[in-house]
Amino acid sequence: MYHCVQTVEIIRSDLKYLMMRKSIAFATAFATLAMAAPAFAQTATGIAPAGANTNANAAASKIPCVGAAVSARESAIGSVIATNSQAIQAAYSARAAALKAAYAGTSAAQVRTAVKAAWLAFNTSKRAAAKAWKTTQTGAWSQFRTAVKSCKATANVSDADNASSEASIQ
To answer: Which residues contact 110 (CB under 8 A, 6 or more apart)?
Structure first.
């Protein structure tokens, strides 16, 4: 019985300690928010106190620079997409013509050899187009990152975090 009472007392003291920590954490958070609230508030005229928007104004002045970097990146990627599409279309057209010629053969050995060559040429063309895409895409993003660094803009102005959403052409 004594052991159970002792265990209950330990649990109660642990709960009191946890509640005290939560209360202190809540009070600290509330006090921090209360001190920060005036920095986020606007005056009755709708103009924030002097110095309150310094970071926003600094970020706004960097937006055109970042916009130009984004425009250059998108232009480069758009061009390589068009080039890649043409290369893939040409590879499919060449494959179709080569397969048509292959099946005009008269022996199984001729057909097999010609079909193998057609698919080899197609895969080679497709890999070359994918390599050109990847090289240009990587270069465009690299130039973009360099340009954005020179803008000295904050991360919340740039869309660099979306690089992983870029199309993967294979």
So the answer is: 102
Instruction: Confirm whether 122 is domain-assigned.
Output: yes
Cα 71 from Cα 78, distance rounded (Å): 10
> 169 near 126, Cβ under 8 Å?
no
Residue 53 lies inside a defined structural domain of this protein: no
The reply to whether 2 falls in a domain is no
Over 60: is that where the pLDDT of 10 sits?
no
- Render pLDDT for 101-119 as a digit per residue (tens, 0 to 9): 999 999 999 999 999 999 9
With a threshold of 0.70, does the pTM exceed it? no
**Hey, is 51 helix, strand or coil?**
coil
pLDDT attached to residue 15: 47
The closest of 123, 121, 113, 118 to 170, measured between CA atoms, is 123
Is the residue at 133 inside a domain?
yes
